[in-house]
Design goal:
Blueprint lengths: L2 H20 L5 H12 L2 H12 L7 H11 L2 H7 L5
Helix pairs in contact: 1-2, 1-4, 2-4, 3-4, 3-5
Length: 85
């Protein structure tokens, strides 16, 4: 994946996290994770999960927590792990 496409995903995830951080009620990380699961196609989610597995540079705390939460989803986690792992 190109560096610029990761930058785009990081920027988008951060914007979503910032939106939910302004919402003072509810679980901001859960709300962000739910948004990513509902509105991002699996290929985008896989790329951002892989980015977090490599350190997650550039993600704000809410976006980082949300991506970690979606990475716990068995479907996503199985697709990110290398074959034979």
């Amino acid at each position: 994946m190109s560096h610029s496409s990761i930058d785009t995903l990081v920027r988008m995830a951060n914007q979503i996290g910032q939106f939910f951080s302004a919402q003072k009620s509810g679980d901001q990380i859960a709300d962000t994770a739910d948004h990513l699961k509902r509105f991002w196609p699996s290929r985008m989610r896989l790329k951002i999960v892989d980015h977090v597995a490599k350190g997650g540079d550039g993600l704000n705390p809410i976006a980082l927590g949300a991506v970690r939460r979606i990475s716990e989803d068995d479907t996503i986690a199985k697709q990110v792990q290398p074959h034979g792992a």
